[in-house]
Write a structure and sequence with these properties.
The protein is α+β, with helices and mostly antiparallel strands and about 110 residues long. The protein is built from one helix and seven strands.
């Protein structure tokens, strides 16, 4: 083999390795319990035209998924204590004079 053929083989092998790396980083996934929207780091925008469900997808190298849970969790706050409602209680305590610690717990 002459030098030109060796040079072409090295460039070709490097190009194939580069292409495989680019293809490997273009894959992204959405978990089965999530929805995903595509975020472009070039334009800094989220495309909401097509939500993606759980699965593995091929994206442009500068794109990624912003994921959201499929289930909706609603948290309600009430004034009075009723049966079956969780309430957040705020407690302030200190271990030394002048020092204040904040802790919160949920009571029923």
């Amino acid at each position: 083999m002459d030098d030109r053929t060796m040079y072409i083989m090295i460039l070709s092998a490097g190009g194939v390795v580069f292409l495989l790396i680019i293809l490997a980083i273009c894959w992204d996934k959405v978990e089965p319990t999530e929805y995903g929207l595509i975020y472009s780091s070039l334009s800094k925008k989220v495309s909401s035209s097509h939500p993606y469900e759980g699965g593995r997808y091929f994206l442009f190298p500068t794109n990624s998924f912003v994921t959201f849970p499929k289930t909706v969790v609603t948290i309600g706050f009430t004034e009075g204590a009723t049966q079956g409602v969780l309430h957040l209680t705020d407690c302030r305590r200190s271990s030394k004079p002048g020092q204040r610690r904040d802790s919160r717990w949920i009571s029923t």
